[in-house]
Design brief:
Layout lengths: L8 H5 L4 H17 L6 H16 L2 H9 L8 H7 L1 H7 L1 H9 L18 H14 L12 E5 L2 E5 L4 E4 L2 E3 L3 H8 L9 E14 L6 E3 L7 E5 L2 H4 L6 E8 L7 H14 L4 E17 L5 H15 L1 E3 L1 H4 L7 H13 L4
Helix pairs in contact: 2-3, 3-5, 9-12
Length: about 350
């Protein structure tokens, strides 16, 4: 059972028993002395917490699900950015500082949930405000080509042409290249994300609203109990399971079967578990394999030379853990002069 995300020092280390604690710390010492090279995500994590805890905690298995690839193939720069907490918490200097730091009671964290009506309701206020200021929205538009015409870019839609001095793209880089008639020679790998929508009646076996899969089995990475936030329907709980499609052949049937087998083996969701629906999202986010960031930078430079600015998690191949991080990047990009 994972009691703290992503690792609990108390439960994953000190509650393991004296013999296991010795093995864990011996593994850390060995890594610090003899495994100092950090060329990928696995070597980065191994250096800081040792191979024993990396495997025992399930962190290595979760990293494989999160990144969508073997952790040995994940770029070291992303590892440093995404897993900074490992080095911060594994540093003896930082641990000593925490031990002697005065406890500071800050403001209580406020839990917020999206409106039950969904994303359209959530974003409607922003859409209306922007429309009042002259913005236009064309969702699910059939984009065909982008051509350079004098000092403008012309975006060809199915029924009309949209012209602008400035075009900003957040779609996957290879899609932007195709629209512009460019080819950087390599398509960046991406994750296909499957969402399974279940309803349930019975004993689910846990009380937390969100569960991450740190075990060594199962292709699913996270489940969210939405009924904990919005209430039950017809006395049934409902939740979503996120599954890495790349690991099960991008098959919804296999994703469901894999999840059912895994929760059954762990005595979870004992009762009536019903699949109500599903979605499959191709190119949900990039796979940050070694060398991919460099290729993305070259492709974005080629797009910029054409006149197209590309940014964001997909368009900029930039890891963004929160909506706030995305907002900050977008604001910074809009303040830059037009190329």
């Amino acid at each position: 059972m994972i009691t703290a995300y992503p690792i609990s020092v108390r439960d994953d280390i000190f509650s393991a028993g004296v013999a296991e604690v010795v093995r864990i710390f011996s593994s850390v010492i060995f890594a610090r002395l003899f495994q100092r090279k950090m060329r990928n995500a696995k070597e980065f994590a191994r250096y800081w917490i040792g191979s024993r805890l990396l495997h025992r905690s399930g962190l290595e298995s979760y990293m494989k699900r999160f990144y969508g690839a073997a952790v040995e193939s994940i770029d070291i720069d992303l590892a440093r950015k995404r897993m900074l907490w490992i080095s911060e918490h594994a540093s003896l200097k930082n641990q000593i500082a925490r031990a002697f730091r005065r406890s500071h009671k800050g403001p209580k964290n406020r839990q917020m949930a999206r409106p039950k009506e969904g994303f359209q309701f959530l974003y409607r206020a922003a859409v209306e405000r922007l429309e009042q200021r002259g913005a236009e929205f064309d969702l699910a538009a059939d984009m065909q080509t982008i051509r350079k015409v004098h000092d403008q870019l012309h975006l060809q839609l199915q029924d009309r042409v949209v012209a602008s001095h400035r075009v900003i793209s957040t779609i996957p880089i290879h899609m932007a290249e195709k629209l512009c008639g460019l080819d950087s020679g390599r398509k960046l790998e991406t994750i296909t994300l499957i969402s399974l929508y279940f309803s349930f009646s019975g004993n689910r076996g846990f009380s937390q609203p969100i569960i991450y899969n740190f075990s060594h089995q199962g292709a699913w990475k996270r489940l969210t109990m939405y009924s904990d936030f919005y209430g039950r329907v017809d006395d049934r709980e409902y939740f979503t399971v996120e599954v890495i499609g790349n690991q099960i052949g991008c098959s919804i049937e296999r994703a469901e079967s894999d999840f059912r087998d895994h929760v059954h083996a762990n005595a979870l969701f004992e009762g009536d578990l019903k699949l109500e629906g599903s979605d499959m999202l191709a190119e949900a986010y990039p796979i940050y394999s070694k060398g991919a960031a460099g290729h993305a930078a070259q492709a974005m430079q080629q797009l910029l030379a054409f006149g197209l600015e590309s940014l964001g998690r997909q368009g900029g191949f930039n890891y963004q853990p929160t909506a706030r991080a995305s907002t900050v990047e977008a604001e910074a990009a809009l303040q830059r002069p037009i190329p």
